[in-house]
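=== RUN LOG ===
request id: a7f3
mode: sequence -> structure
chains: 1
length: 885
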Amino acid sequence: MPAPANWRSLRQNRRGNGTLECSECGLCLTRQSHLTRHIHSHLPPTQRNIIPCPSCGKRFSRQDVFLRHNRKVHHARQASKRGGQKSCFRCVQKKLKCDRDHPCATCAKVNAVCKYPEESKEQPQSEEEVHRPNGSVSNAHEHLSSILVNSTFQPQDASAMESVAGPVNYGGSLAPCASTQSVDAMESEQAHGALGVDRQYPPFQDPFADPFGSLPLFDVSNGLDFAQIGVDWLDVSEDLTGDWGISEPMAANEDGPSNRQQSPCLDRTAETAPLPTRTTRASPQIYQPGLATPSVTDLAPEDHDVSRQQWPFDAERDAAPKRYQAPPMRQVLQMQIQTSNKEYTSFHNSLTELFSDTYLPIPEVDRGTVAAMQVVKRWLESYFREFHGVSPVIHTPTWDIETCPTILIAAMSLIGAASSARDGPSRAQLAVLSELCSKMLPLIAASDTKNYQDINYLIAYCLSSIYYLGSGDRQLYQVADRSRGILIGSLRGLGILRSYFSVSVEGEKEKGDQYTDHRDRNARLHQDWISWRDQQQELRLAWTVFGFDYTLSTLTSKRGAIDLSELPTRLPCADSLWTAPSAQAWAALKVDMSETATGASLAFCLRSIVAGKQLPPDLPPYSRRYCTTVLDRLLWDLKQLDMVFMTGCLGLPQSSSGQQERKTTLLEILGKIRHSLSRPRSNEELINYSMIYSIYHYSNLSNSGDMMDLVVFIARKSLSANNPHAMASINAAERRLAISYASDPQKTRSLVWHAAQIIGVSNHYIFCSPCEVLRMFAAYAVLIAYGRYRPRLPPDYRDTTPIDIGQIYANAEQMAATTQWIRYGGCASVGSAKDIRSEEGVQALIREGCERLSSIITWRASGMFVRALKYFELEAQFEREHINP
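=== RESULT ===
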């Protein structure tokens, strides 16, 4: 039937301003269906499209009203259309090619469940429809279609007209349409990508191909360097879907039946766990060895592929693991009661009651947990007394036991209990607490991955890892090694590493003047104080994790995991500002403090030292210590590079003289920092200055070449001295060490002086970190090895008064005597050893070293060093009995 006369004017209006105008009354409408229905209202009754009901005879002018009448009055059901999907759900979701087998090859390769859409079945008709003369809804639809086709007025939309006459063009491809009813269906199918229309997909790229394989890396014209070539795929923050038609169609039809049919587990998964974000997507799963795995309830079906798009290199496997619901904390902690020591089952039960909630139930403590609460408070007091000064990451003015999370209290108690475990009962309590902490940390992380973004949880994880590192348990060493990656990854995800910290508060005074009301000013001041505290705590946590990484690197002789370029740009503030008891005291102190005291620039401090300048006098001791640590880390990186060249595995020449000059320069800079320190006048200076001393002297020992390496090798192999192969290696190392001592006696005595200085530092302050324990052991090992393997003196040799080379605060006369001793030799004393060259002096050093290391109860790793020192005693006894009877 021809189109009405006003068709072209309607089409013109449609193109012009997006509206359709009625030629009869001038009414403007935006939708073609509304205009068609409106035009029917101008027609006489004889020309209107009337839809009669085949069941009751009623007539309708709208098909939606007619269909609703059929469903409600006659209880008619239309047979559901069979979907066009023929591939399995998993291949459709992952955009993979499906061979439509049962199961398909793609699902069978990864052992995934392969499911296909169920075949649609005709819905049974009601009894009324069966006995009806023309009794099916399909007849009604056929009748409706015939009326629409034969009507006087056709749909007045260009796309609808072309759909009747021929194919419709969608984005450059042709999709044939049978009737006007298929237009909406086709648009819906196009939105879901069901039709085979051409879309502008990005070209496929092989994920395993080298992204720079086509570029000449050494072509000067390209201007490529390592900074440009390095690509971090895990740090991509852009939307990987791009314009591929993945996100928007899914969101546009998220309520449609096709989505619910294809992925029945998506909605339920979205309710049980949030979708991963940039910081939680790669949250690691913690595994604690040797611990019973708690029973968990599987919430997801077997084919649980909730990720709508995987990484390119995960295309052949399921990247999203099954989701589990963690059991209650109390249930997991009580699992170990049956396997614990019966004598301490009651204490275990009480401690479980305290640590089962997010916060300690102090107001509701009953009689059964009072004793455990008192023990926890003693542990916390020990933590603040023994360890807090080493890593002051806790803000003591605002810290409160009632508002502190339980996991952080447990980690602090762990170190406090290790510092006070002097007898059998206290050690048993420490074992109970360590067992509970090993359960709580992974369980809290597994319950919600957002805990990896919580500063309190990360502090607790760092403190417990420090304890594991010094526990002396090989199994816990592995836990500490794994936890380093978790800590560093979490800090990178939060932006604490590689970020800029605004620890200074310039402009705060002007902000405070805006508040005339005293209450408003105090409230704003307290808010600024808390905000500054949070930033400073993040900064201190980053430096504490760096210290943990540095300690682990020193103990394992491996490179650190934190790159120096990732370190915060600012150093921690002065301890007096950090411990200000109130917001008013904090504001008053920071007014007169320099920028160095409120948080000095790390780059500025390092440049000043390298240029030969002194560090700022108001630089806090805590910051001085970490400047020394960074320089020592640089030395360790250079040493690692030298080790690669020395092995010769790459066929490269030995390191150049410039490399050695850099090491010498860094050692000289460390010496300037050490000599710029005055006598400590506070506990903060005592702790940090002692650690700076030991870092400087140990750096000279570790960068001395073969001598220190041979001493450490002998001490390490002595732990397995019963092995014949180990004894042969020890004998060869001893002969080589004796040759080194004889060939360069002046260098040997210089190393002995550095070792004696470490012993002198330990006489003033007992070290409170596992790394310091290692340095103390290395110092005793160097002194003992010098007395054992140095060239023997003639029997008639007599010396003058011995020189005490362990004085760390020597005057000018003592320093001149020490310099003379290093050049020409002579008699020297350290501690209880009056002459470190004599046999009596060696035995005195062995006894003193074993006693000093055994007295460090906080770090059980010292027991291993004690056994290594006793090897020298056994060897001396063997020589006295067999060689010199």
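=== NOTES ===
The first helix runs from residue 7 to 17.
The beta strands are 20-21, 28-29, 51-52, 59-60, 168-170, 173-175, 297-298, 324-325, 803-804, 828-829.
=== END ===
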